[in-house]
Structure of (2Fe-2S)-binding protein:
Amino acid sequence: MARVSMTVNGEQVSGEIEGRTLLVDFLRGTLGLTGTHVGCDTSQCGACLVHVEDAPVKACSMFAAEAEGLRVTTIEGVAGADGTLSPVQKAFQDYHGLQCGFCTPGMVMAATSLLEENPKPTEAEVRQYLEGNLCRCTGYHNIVRAVMAASGQDVGTVAAD
């Protein structure tokens, strides 16, 4: 067992881990932050996407020990301190960019990263950026519309899948 410390959603946290503990397991099991979902355990679906030092990372592909001393943001840390939804979260709500909701945390985290890198992406850029996140329900149409809306662009031209 080893001790790991990091900043998660603005708070300093620490916990005892085995060397093989994945970041997603530390977040969910040790810290109780269950918004980060485990979808595939193979880094294929994107449900576990978090931000590490502001970069998108699939938390099932990183050991918790690798996050020692780093800043991690989960879906729980995206909303304002008062619970106000972020622009991306609000757009997902307004444009029904979710159905079952399982992929939603990873999609929101990916979309947030995209808009930080490229505040006005094209529809094609949104679709390309989200390729690493799988959704089994929506067909992506409303997810793309939500990201375009969050960027302040017209969603009326988003093509149906």
Notes: The beta strands are 2-8, 11-17, 49-52, 55-58, 71-73. The radius of gyration is 16 Å.
